[in-house]
């Protein structure tokens, strides 16, 4: 009679890809063992690399969820020797970057040349960003940070302008967004810089409303609120900064209805709008 004494742990190889993948993929495990032979192979999948393999491996395992970030496994031989747990980082990103162009506005006619684009690019895995002002013929790369509203210095021309932004993530998912706008400086009378980029939200508003706008130079703005009959309810002076400004105003003290706001700055700088108070 012959006895085998097996003190050697099994080994297991995998075919998990090391780079970012943009679509579902399978992982195949191939265990082997000297002497007593492989009894079982177990695996687990987790987002934080803290799982202990507990699922019996029976064939290729599909990775289809972007939250699946770690694939751990080990094999056991017939003599009860366990292989140390192997942890593989898996990288699946099926979601292209999201691009928003806040300014200039689509199809809005501008009375003066536009020299900036305001945008936000969002992706958990953002790699590179570029823009083009000639419909993709010339690419200009720029550094980009996911989720941050940012500004590009671009130069518009008299007539039609088409500006595009492109973004790619590390899994080579590609997105693009473009804005088309005409510029007519010939017939422009006076420049109203407050209107070049101006946003109020939310509207309707129940309490805090937010005004966002750009100024070419620092200046004091007179901010007023009127009711629908024209009665002034508020007037205050706001120090406007060159560049981006954000001002919050609490409408909760007013009854439901329609209100008019007005910003007045340097000559020609007037912006009015309607707010619906819920
Ligand atoms: Ca063995
Ligand atoms: Ca992505």
Can you walk me through this structure?
The chain is mainly beta and about 280 residues long. The chain has three domains: about 10-90, Immunoglobulin-like (Sandwich); about 100-185, Immunoglobulins (Immunoglobulin-like, Sandwich), CATH 2.60.40.10; about 195-275, Immunoglobulin-like (Sandwich). The protein contains no helices and 22 strands. The chain has strands spanning about 10-15, 25, 30, 40-45, 55, 60-65, 70-75, 85-90, 100-105, 115-120, 125-130, 140, 150-155, 160-170, 175-185, 200, 210-215, 220-225, 230-240, 245-250, 255-265, 270-275. The strands form seven sheets. It has a four-stranded antiparallel β-sheet with strand order 5-4-7-8, with no helix packed on it. It is elongated and about 105 Å long. Bound molecules: calcium ion (CA) (2 copies). One calcium ion binds near residues 97, 123 and 125.
Keywords:
278 residues; mainly beta; Immunoglobulin-like; 3 domains; 0% helix; binds calcium ion
Small ligands present: calcium ion
The CATH superfamily name of the largest domain is Immunoglobulins
Secondary-structure arrangement, i.e. CATH architecture of the largest domain: Sandwich
Structurally, the number of domains stands at: 3
CATH level-3 fold name of the largest domain: Immunoglobulin-like
Structural class: mainly beta
Low-confidence stretches: 188-192
């Amino acid at each position: 009679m012959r006895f085998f004494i097996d003190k050697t742990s099994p080994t297991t190889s995998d075919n998990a890809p090391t780079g970012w993948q943009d679509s579902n993929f399978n992982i195949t495990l191939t265990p082997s063992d000297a002497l007593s032979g492989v009894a079982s192979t177990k695996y687990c999948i987790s987002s934080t690399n803290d799982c202990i393999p507990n699922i019996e491996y029976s064939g290729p395992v599909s990775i289809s969820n972007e939250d699946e970030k770690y694939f751990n496994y080990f094999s056991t031989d017939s003599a009860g020797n366990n292989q140390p747990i192997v942890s593989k980082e898996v990288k699946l990103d099926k979601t292209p970057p999201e691009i928003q162009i806040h300014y200039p506005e689509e199809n809005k006619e501008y009375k003066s040349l536009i020299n900036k684009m305001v945008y936000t690019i969002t992706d958990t895995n953002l790699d590179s960003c570029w823009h083009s002002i000639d419909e993709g013929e010339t690419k200009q790369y720029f550094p980009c940070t996911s989720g941050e509203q940012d500004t590009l210095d671009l130069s518009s021309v008299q007539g039609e302008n088409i500006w595009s932004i492109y973004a790619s993530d590390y899994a080579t998912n590609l997105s693009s967004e473009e804005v088309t706008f005409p510029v007519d400086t010939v017939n422009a009378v006076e420049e109203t810089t407050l209107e070049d980029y101006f946003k109020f939200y939310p509207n309707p508003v129940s309490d805090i409303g937010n005004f966002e706008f750009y100024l070419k130079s620092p200046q004091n703005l007179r901010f007023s609120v009127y009711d629908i009959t024209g009665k002034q309810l508020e007037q205050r002076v706001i120090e406007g900064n060159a560049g981006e400004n954000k001002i919050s105003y609490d409408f909760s003290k007013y009854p439901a209805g329609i209100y008019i706001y007005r910003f007045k700055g340097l000559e020609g700088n007037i912006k009015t709008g309607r707010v619906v108070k819920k």
